[in-house]
Amino acid sequence: MKILAVTGYKPMEINIFKEDDPRITYIKAAIVKRIVPLIEEGLEWILLSGQMGVEIWTAEIVLDLQEDYDIKLGIFPPFENQETRWPESLQEKYQALVATADFYKPIYQGDYKGSFQFKAKNMWLADKSDACLILMDEEYPGSTRFFYEAAKQAIDENSIFTITPADLDDVVEEMRMSDPDYWQN
């Protein structure tokens, strides 16, 4: 596997409304736990559409991992200026990520024209990837269900990896247990 698409919830879909929410730390740790072994096995590219939430957090992770690993980041938004309706702090973060990504190219030139652009983005990312990683609860898939359906059409089911609520619980517990103070009580 050389190319992995990563997606998941937007922050508001999982009730995260502040950039310093401690749950982001756990989500990032779960993503790192899944992608580092793939990088060590030869993963070369991580592709994202750059939407806020899991994808922005993944982009930050990849840029951090580039200090120790040869991994590249490609950002392929469905259209130009997707961030214009986002909070200003997220717009700035997105623009900084786009500027430092190894490759950036919108699927469609110009601004938002219709929902077809999101469908095309999902199909394009699934088609260009060898595998995908989705942070998703199958009971409450939210917007992730659209990419998941596209991935099932384009990618072998054995190459569709998920991070579930149970996986997040495991990461939280692992992080708590790694804290020396945890064992003092």
Automatic annotation (TrEMBL):
Entry-linked InterPro entries: YspA
Pfam family, one: YpsA
Domain of life, source organism: Bacteria
Annotated SUPFAM superfamilies: MCP/YpsA-like
PANTHER family: UPF0398 PROTEIN SPR0331 (PTHR38440:SF1), UPF0398 PROTEIN YPSA (PTHR38440)
Record NCBIfam families: PRK13660.1
Name of the protein in its database record: DUF1273 domain-containing protein
Species whose genome carries this gene: Virgibacillus salarius
